[in-house]
């Protein structure tokens, strides 16, 4: 197809964790419940959409790396949060495709066939690939990497599919391969301790090796509500802070990702910066044909 051919540099926008309901839950110290208000998140996501719509040239797509809403499957406010987020996202320019990645709040910490089916009906496939301008993009369901005890067959299906996809990348049949998943492989380094915000050491190393062997250039994640990341071999692990609740010192924001013939160049912008100033000239220059 035409999108399998490299036609020059382009860019996309990555966001993560709008997570409607977390700000109230976090402020009241009750993250397992709470979350019965999400006006702040609505306003922030509206600001993100307005900033994206103003950009010129337009991004090739806008990817949201999981935790779309805060209410876990089967808990109160889930339907309302979902409806409100879908309403806000309807305002995204019709020429900018939306790409959704499933997070732990979207499918549950321990997903089941039922929670995965609910996600698919609401947001689309929980894992899939797509091509833009000669670049292969892979969207993964990282909950299968976290705990697939209640849906082993689904995890196995993703594993087999991923190996097929990565064989395309390994044969260098694409200009670059880029992965989106909610939970980062790691936050700073491949050897860091296991914690809530990364994948366990054994899974992390297995996945990182698989990606590195296939020549994957970058993995983009959210989940941490802070900016972080590091490199492993030639793999860039990029952890982007949230559109919604901040757990560190970063601002509510979005990441601009420029794909050139050789590199993946990215920069995090606060929503205010992106709204007021747009993309920096040095990034725009990368997209002008050399």
From TrEMBL:
<keyword id="KW-0963">Cytoplasm</keyword>
<feature type="domain" description="Calcineurin-like phosphoesterase">
    <location>
        <begin position="46"/>
        <end position="226"/>
    </location>
</feature>
<dbReference type="GO" id="GO:0005737">
    <property type="term" value="C:cytoplasm"/>
</dbReference>
<dbReference type="Pfam" id="PF00149">
    <property type="entry name" value="Metallophos"/>
</dbReference>
<comment type="similarity">
    <text>Belongs to the metallophosphoesterase superfamily. CPPED1 family.</text>
</comment>
<protein>
    <recommendedName>
        <fullName>Serine/threonine-protein phosphatase CPPED1</fullName>
        <ecNumber>3.1.3.16</ecNumber>
    </recommendedName>
</protein>
<dbReference type="InterPro" id="IPR051918">
    <property type="entry name" value="STPP_CPPED1"/>
</dbReference>
<keyword id="KW-0378">Hydrolase</keyword>
<keyword id="KW-0479">Metal-binding</keyword>
<comment type="function">
    <text>Protein phosphatase that dephosphorylates AKT family kinase specifically at 'Ser-473', blocking cell cycle progression and promoting cell apoptosis. May play an inhibitory role in glucose uptake by adipocytes.</text>
</comment>
<dbReference type="GO" id="GO:0004722">
    <property type="term" value="F:protein serine/threonine phosphatase activity"/>
</dbReference>
<dbReference type="InterPro" id="IPR004843">
    <property type="entry name" value="Calcineurin-like_PHP"/>
</dbReference>
<dbReference type="GO" id="GO:0046872">
    <property type="term" value="F:metal ion binding"/>
</dbReference>
<dbReference type="InterPro" id="IPR029052">
    <property type="entry name" value="Metallo-depent_PP-like"/>
</dbReference>
<dbReference type="InterPro" id="IPR041867">
    <property type="entry name" value="MPP_CSTP1"/>
</dbReference>
